[in-house]
């Protein structure tokens, strides 16, 4: 059998390399979230029960299979409310509904039916086809209103986000840039 001669320097370098490898392995295990401690309680025992999700109540009407009031989790979209109401009927004109809009408590989601002759003469893209619903309108829909530019449209969206759903058109008076004259001009063009 051959004698293996290992120098002291090789032993020290080997020990350092082994220590570095163990340190690196410990860090990888620590950052991966894997715990091998025997005394650690299971995760379910240490976490408190999650609070129930906040709910919003919306009224879904129009060309849907089951119109009515629905409770949905906060953060859901108009598309979720329409689906919860059984989906749109064949007569629904979903092009007039912003399905991506976030739901707010107390709003009414209106799914209009197609009207006979719709599409014969397309309306101009900037002209609203009916009242703009303040609780579900997009920035572009609000910007298309007369006398409302992109800055005021954003203020309306910010107000809706901070204060919740509009309960009446008169609440627009609280938004900077909309005075009594502008409010009278918008009264027939918008709805809560």
Furnish the topology, listing elements before pairings:
Blueprint (H helix, E strand, L loop, with lengths): L7 H24 L11 H4 L8 E8 L5 E6 L4 H7 L23 E4 L20 E2 L5 H5 L6 H14 L16 H7 L3 E2 L1
Parallel strand pairs: 1-3, 4-5
Antiparallel strand pairs: 1-2
Give your account of this protein's structure:
This protein is of the alpha/beta class. Among the domains are: 51-115, Ubiquitin-like (UB roll); 130-192, DNA polymerase, domain 1 (Orthogonal Bundle), CATH 1.10.150. 32% of the residues lie in helices and 11% in strands. The protein contains six helices and five strands. The strands form two sheets. It has a three-stranded mixed sheet, with helices on one face. Strands 4-5 form a two-stranded parallel sheet. A hairpin with a 5-residue loop joins β1 and β2 (68-73). The radius of gyration is 30 Å and the shape is elongated. The chain starts with 7 loop residues before the first helix and ends with a strand. Residues 34-38 and 119-128 have low confidence and may be disordered.
* Biggest sheet, spatial arrangement of strands: 2-1-3
Task: Report the helical percentage.
Answer: 25-40%
What would the principal axes of the Cα set say about the shape? elongated
Which structural class fits the helix and strand makeup?
alpha/beta
Distance between the termini: 94 Å
| Number of distinct helices | 6
Highest CATH level, the class of one domain: Alpha Beta
User: Quick one: how many beta strands?
Assistant: 5
Share in β-strands: 5-15%
Order of helices and strands: HHEEHEEHHHE
The rounded Rg comes to 30 Å
CATH architecture of one domain: Roll
CATH topology of one domain: Ubiquitin-like (UB roll)
Task: Flag low-confidence runs.
Answer: 34-38, 119-128
């Amino acid at each position: 059998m051959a004698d293996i001669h290992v120098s002291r320097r090789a032993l020290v370098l080997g020990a350092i390399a082994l220590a570095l490898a163990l340190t690196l392995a410990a860090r990888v295990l620590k950052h991966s979230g894997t715990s091998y401690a025997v005394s650690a309680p299971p995760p379910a025992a240490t976490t408190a029960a999650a609070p129930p999700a906040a709910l919003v109540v919306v009224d879904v009407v129009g060309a849907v299979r089951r119109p009515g009031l629905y409770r949905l989790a906060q953060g859901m979209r108009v598309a979720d409310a329409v689906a919860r109401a059984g989906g749109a009927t064949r007569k629904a004109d979903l092009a007039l509904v912003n399905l991506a809009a976030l739901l707010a408590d107390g709003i009414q989601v209106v799914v209009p039916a197609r009207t006979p002759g719709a599409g014969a003469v397309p309306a101009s893209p900037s002209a609203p086809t009916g009242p703009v619903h303040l609780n579900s309108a997009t920035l572009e829909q609000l910007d298309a209103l007369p006398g409302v530019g992109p800055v005021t449209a954003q203020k309306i969206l910010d107000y809706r986000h901070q204060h919740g759903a509009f309960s009446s058109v008169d609440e627009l008076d609280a938004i900077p840039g909309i005075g009594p004259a502008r409010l009278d001009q918008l009264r027939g063009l918008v709805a809560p």
